[in-house]
Write a structure and sequence with these properties.
By secondary structure, the chain is an alpha/beta fold. 47% of the residues lie in helices and 16% in strands. The relative contact order is 0.19. The structure holds adenosine monophosphate. The site of adenosine monophosphate has 18 residues, from helix 2 and helix 3.
Length: 213
């Protein structure tokens, strides 16, 4: 079987997590989100969780060293044999360079949405404490207020989705992550996808590009 090793790139709020879930189901490959892994560590109160808690709350990036080691270990697991989707990694040129030493990548999917829409999406976002599924207070509310439709977990407003932190995250993105677009376009495996529209429309665009339809 052909391997499908995918990086999903794009600013916070562009829909990486949602589309990574779709790709994971469609191609039966694991979604690996460094943000989810870090949030789980924080929730469990592990030493790593305690170190990164404030950094996430401030909308800053965790050190390259920490996330690279998370990814290096995760990619060794058996379920990554046929491929994987990286959601939220790499986020700096140093992370991209390290990733290159660990694995090859088949596609880099860059999701594109204008900044005003991103802010609106992020502010209204609510996340399940238990399964990490995301909702939006206006565009995709849960059936019961603050309760996850899927697992019954409690929904919360991530500190980094509060307005004062969103701006910082977008600035961090521009400064540190946007240069990756140029980096990957030089390697010629960059696919640009319009991230505006319904979730299924965006998913359709991504899979058409991946399958070369
Ligand atoms: P996300 O859920 O992808 O938006 O990530 C939430 C937060 O986790 C980010 O704002 C960072 O603080 C941290 N984080 C996740 N992935 C990375 C990464 N690749 N490099 C540095 N920090 C990260």
């Amino acid at each position: 079987m052909r391997k499908l090793r995918i990086i999903l790139l794009g600013p916070p709020g562009v829909g990486k997590g949602t589309q990574a879930n779709f790709l994971s189901e469609r191609y039966r490959i694991p979604k690996i989100s460094t943000g989810d892994i870090l949030r789980q560590e924080i929730q469990k109160g592990t030493p790593l969780g305690n170190v990164v808690k404030n950094i996430l709350g401030q909308g800053k990036l965790v050190s390259d060293e920490v996330v690279i080691s998370i990814i290096e270990n995760r990619l060794k697991e058996k379920d990554c044999e046929n491929g994987f989707i990286l959601d939220g990694f790499p986020r700096t040129l140093a992370q991209a360079a390290s990733l290159e030493k660990i694995t090859e990548v088949d596609f880099v999917v860059s999701l594109v949405v204008q900044k005003r829409e991103l802010t609106q999406r992020l502010e209204g976002r609510r996340t399940c404490k238990k399964c990490q599924r995301m909702y939006h207070v206006v565009f995709e509310p849960s059936k019961r207020p603050n309760i996850c439709d899927v697992c019954g977990g409690e929904l919360f407003w991530r500190k980094d989705d509060h307005p004062e932190t969103i701006e910082k995250r977008l600035i961090e993105y521009q400064r540190l992550t946007e240069p990756l677009l140029k980096y990957y376009s030089r390697k010629k495996n960059l696919l640009e996808v319009n991230g505006i529209g319904k979730i299924v429309e965006v998913s359709g665009r991504i899979s058409s590009q991946l399958e070369g339809v």
